[in-house]
Amino acid sequence: MEGRRIVFVIFDGFQTLDLTGPYEVFQRADLLAGGYECDIVAARAGLLRSGSGLPVHAGHGVDDAPSDGVDTLVVAGGSGVDRARHDPALTGWIAAAAAGARRVTSVCSGAFLLAAAGLLDGRRVTTHWGRARQLAREYPRVHVDSAPIFVRDGRVWTSAGVTAGMDLALALVEDDLGRDVAHAVARHLVLFLRRPGSQAQFSVALSTAPPATDPVRAAVAAIHADMRARHTIDELAAHAGLSPRHLQRRFTAELGVPPAAYVERARVEAAQRALAEGDEPVEAVARRCGFGTAETLRRTFHRHLGVAPSDYRSRFRSTADPLTAQEHS
């Protein structure tokens, strides 16, 4: 089978994992099922260094790399992207290659290079959460959503930072070769989950500020200790030793979200883990994670993730894995 040409674009100061993570996904998929040929293009051929100092050899520079015949363009991000996006030769080659490519993708701040090449206008995209506001400010015709780990808008796919590039690559492999191949690749690379693009870049515990005081810490600990509990403001206030009104104000000020919103997000994440890791019926997951009924869980999942609980589970579980015998180190 003739391989699809996957072209990675890097530059001095690129983020190492933006290249190596997706590269390993495609190479493993090619080993298991065939279908890919990977290439690296940079502003110039030869040795480049990532932002962490890792030397990488680019086989082609934009002056000699063919811009046609590209199936999927993968543009890395990194600390050097601000200089790279002002290189007209590099952005011009990206635009030319993208014109004939089946898919155009970026990892992390690689979205800035796609934007500079004029490829993101009018599209919904994501990038590393730390660069999202800058991207939206400097490219106002781009619709930036900093929450998901990756976003697909037509033939353009963009992902959040660093390891999210592997989630994006697995989604591309699944799009090409099916769920079982993507599942086998994820397992070989010891990726615990193949996260859907709609999943948030951070868990609620990481996306909110840490509690600054003991009363709010006590309320947060109570939430995570027992998802089945009701966790009304009165009950949380009793854990915190504060009045309900005082806790509401302190909790929101310290964490940036009110208690009810925090509880709901924590329950959604607990249900995500339960659905992905276990075999409990959806009804049992709903009860254990504090939703009460499967219908309440379904409505909440649709609001937060855009999918039903059963669909979420199916993304992470494979009923057959015919490639197991082909896997080897």
Helix amount: 40-55%
Strand content: 5-15%
Quickly give the structural class.
alpha/beta
Shape: globular
List low-confidence stretches.
318-329
Kindly list the characteristics that best describe this protein.
329 residues, alpha/beta, Rossmann fold, Arc Repressor Mutant, subunit A, seven-stranded mixed β-sheet, two-stranded antiparallel sheet, globular, disordered C terminus
Q: In words, what does this structure look like?
A:
The chain is an alpha/beta fold and 329 residues long. It has two domains: 4-188, Rossmann fold (3-Layer(aba) Sandwich); 204-316, Homeodomain-like (Arc Repressor Mutant, subunit A, Orthogonal Bundle). 47% of the residues lie in helices and 13% in strands. A seven-stranded mixed beta sheet has the order 5-2-1-6-7-11-10, sandwiched between helices. α6 packs antiparallel against α7, α9 crosses α10 and α12 (259-277) crosses α14. The longest helix has 19 residues, at 259-277.
